[in-house]
Model the fold of this input.
Amino acid sequence: MELNKFIENFAALFDDTDLSKFSSTTKFRELEEWSSILALSLIAMSDEEYNVKLKGDDIRNSQTIEDVYNIIKSKM
Amino acid sequence: MAFLSIENVIIKGVSACVPSCIQENIKLPVFLSQEDAHKFISSTGIENRRVSDEKTTTSDLCFHAAEKLIADLNWQKEDIDCLIFVTQTPDYILPATSCILQNRLGLSEECFSLDISLGCSGWVYGMSIISNLLSTGAFKKGLLLVGDTLSKINSKDDKSSYPLFADAGTATALEHQKNMTKIKKIYFHLATDGSGFETIIIPDGANRNRVSPESFINKEYGEGIVRNNLNIALNGMDVFSFGISKAPQSVNKMIEHFNLDKEAINYFIFHQANLFMNEKIRKKLKLPEEKVPYSLKEFGNTSSATIPLTMVTQLQRKLQNEKLKLIGCGFGVGLSWGSIYFSTDKIICSNLIEI
Done:
């Protein structure tokens, strides 16, 4: 599992947020487009791409995109 | 491994009853704005929901569904040997509501009656129990009554839960039939993960946490999410994560275990959770849209009633006029989930009842 590819997958969930806004340190929950549906899309992406079941708390306890990446990696 | 194969039982008919009162999600005050409501509707697919009045319970809806189905089938009530009622909104904590329904429907005293407490997986589990009871021929005719009135126990001020759930009661009639061909067997895969028991829960009011003055205190859990401990608390993200992995897995396990021809299945009827989750499940199983009917738009998520309600509202003509091979899959509160394969041969499918 590679961080850059994960950030790419993460950014692909968004429709209206500029690609330049996404990096490992992005505080994703502070992005204007972030919503409960995007949280579900993130869970689905984790399931489809990495076969990892993300929990609600995994997302709630993460600050940055890299935090989510690390959680998924630890569950693989 | 919880696989079941049932012989000598056929489904004779299905019916459903919903409250006549329609609530439009777009008009709900729980949403912060019209835009908020539109977003909810487009992702969940739920525009309208049926909501019961103060006086009407799940057993009332199921009673009417059962009466209509018994009449349409031309069944004699004294021939009904077993009645199973699946709900999480019973009339009372005790006695079992199935006993009340046995009497109210005018069924014989020589009738096996049982309540089962399950939600979204309830119709599939109920089918597994009743078909087992009928399989040996000791019981000849059985009624499976399934439904919930979640509007009663949901907080109107919780936008994460209230606009999803609605009320419905259903009846499914099954009969023992000797020397059935192999093709008509009913297959099941059934599963449980109680580690997720808090994912969908009403914390207070039963015996672990008895009702107390604190139970009634409304608390805010986020913007637009206010409820007390006698309301449903739904962890949407965890349910979603569970549903998109377990539902497709269960359907696939059953198909593989019983060597079913996936292409030959006419319809896959899933528990109607919400469109966003259900579409993920459909795509994961690579099923064409036309094989996966939805009743979400008009009826929302009616817990255990969704599968038979979808049969009645979306597949009535097909069920009445054609031979069908069907797969159903329920998943949710418990956590509990299961899949069923069954075939129908021009069954009775009553018109939707509205009371």
